Amino acid sequence: MTVVFVCLDADALGGIQQVTHTLAQGLAVRGHTVGIAGLRRTATPFRYVERPLYGRRVPRWRVPWRGVARRWGEQALRAAAGGVVVLTCPRVAGLLAGKAPDGTRVVGQYHGSFAQARDGGDLADVRRHYGGLDRAVFPSADDAWRFAEEALLPNAVDLPAPLRAWPDSASYLDTRRVLGVGRLVPGKRFDRLITAFARAVRARAGWELHLVGDGPELPRLRACAAAAGVAGRVVFRGRVGAAELGGEFRNAAVLGLTSEHEGMPPVVAEAAAHGMPAVAFDVSGGVRSLVLDGTTGVLVPHADLDAFTGALAALMADPARRRRLGAAARAHAAAFRLDPVLDRWEDLFAAVRR
CA–CA separation, 256 vs 259, rounded Å? Predict the structure, then answer.
């Protein structure tokens, strides 16, 4: 069938885009006609798939949000006529509400958690624009249930974010390196990770914190590392290509996740697939579905920096426990391999087309 994903920014660096390109390539490999349409041009595009088998359309200009963007989106909907269109965020769903051609099924996707929607202002838009669609897709069963109960969505289902690929080998977990991966933006709260690392590393020689990603928070985070006395131990790696990211996981021992909000963060699944345990704030059902506390990693209460520091220090000091949790994480991550997730998407497409 024909499947078109419509994004606000199709080529930006972020979890929504990674999931979208991964699904598009996987569905194209299975023989579907797949496209991705972006409503705005990204200033610094990121390449997620080396040889894409799907179409991609983005404007040649950075269009204003309304007007031209709506017309561009309507063209994308016409390209999906008779098939399925996936609207990947509430702003896109609001812009294109009711514009799909007759016979075209429309799925709304929300990549964040219920708490993120509630606290960040998306909840009203999800309630307004997603309830009348053929399905509303959320990243975890817990989030789908909360949207169904508290936002009164009768069409809520859960589909996890898929892994881009399954690594052939796992990390040995013997490199004295804590890893943080993501855009350097306020919501990721890498300042918390730097602070926790600084406290945990005082009695442990040789450990470093590597932050992979770029963004506007870089100067502030450098200052935070200097103020915490670990400027020489915090390495800012900048943007790393998708093909090289596996090496970052293989050469680290613990993943740290200190975000204010997350849906189902792909970075945690990728770390788990490489056999790496995570220490994470318990901020969503998606995080809980990836980090099984005490089994595949450690969950601590949201924003409890003392608990996070203690959990991180304990894993840094205990290589045997890191390997035990890491092995369990890799086994658990098999459920998020691309093929089983694609099976569920195809089941959803078949259900909405009946």
Answer: 9
Q: Residues 266-276: pLDDT tens digits?
A: 999 999 999 99
| Size (the chain), residues | 354
- Give the CA distances from residue 199 to residues 169, 225, 245, in Å, rounded to whole numbers and listed in that order: 31, 11, 27
* Nearest-angstrom CA–CA distance, 237 and 235: 6
Sign of CA dihedral 110, 116, 120, 122: positive
What SS3 state is found at 54? coil
Q: What is the rounded distance in angstroms from the CA atom of residue 318 to the CA atom of residue 50?
A: 38
Q: Residues 260, 189: contact at Cβ < 8 Å?
A: yes
pLDDT at 64: 61
Is 0.85 topped by the overall pTM?
Answer: yes
Structural domains in the chain, CATH included, are: 2-162+337-352 (3.40.50.2000), 177-335 (3.40.50.2000)
Alpha-carbon span 243 to 51, nearest angstrom: 12
Closest CA to 233 of 256, 252, 213, 206: 206
Q: Is the CB of residue 23 less than 8 Å from the CB of residue 345? A: yes
Query: CA-CA distance, 130 to 94, in Å (whole number)?
Result: 9
pLDDT digit string (tens) for 53-86?
999 998 887 766 667 788 888 888 998 999 999 9
